[in-house]
Design a protein that fits this description.
The chain is an alpha+beta fold. The chain has five helices and nine strands. The strands form two sheets. Strands 1, 2, 5, 6, 7, 8 and 9 form a seven-stranded mixed sheet that branches.
Amino acid sequence: MDPLKTLCVVVSSITIAFFAVTCSKGPEKVADTGKAPDFTLSDTYGHATTLSSLRGKIVILEFWATWCSPCRESVPELNEMYERFRGKNVELLGISVDKGGDAPSAVRAFLTEHAVAYPVLLDDRNVNSSYGVSGIPAMFIIDKEGKVVKQFTGFIPGLGRTLSKEVEALL
């Protein structure tokens, strides 16, 4: 085979593999990972939220990005979950991993366009790595004591029901 064609095949394969890992479609359960790393992150308007201030509540974290198609698909189910558990000692926080100086405005536009009902914070490029996020969307369920009890990576229809069952068991 021509060396240029070989190079193109290798580069294409690496690119496809990268996108398959960073934006996955199917859920992948990961075993208990222990205490949830604390963080303080701001929303798109600069209002800060600290995870440890939510101790005593069940917290669901969703790491996502505006460019991730499965992340967009998860919004209706997460909106439904947010409404279902509102006022029941449960907090749902989206954490956008979008990067760049225009990330806050891009995220605000996404939140409006997709009618996201739950609070969304902007990752500082450290929080997703402290949670070991390897693909998005990634969801973490944190119990009232601040321990990560479940992790899901990817999205398939019905994930909201699965997450809801996990939360119900912790209430």
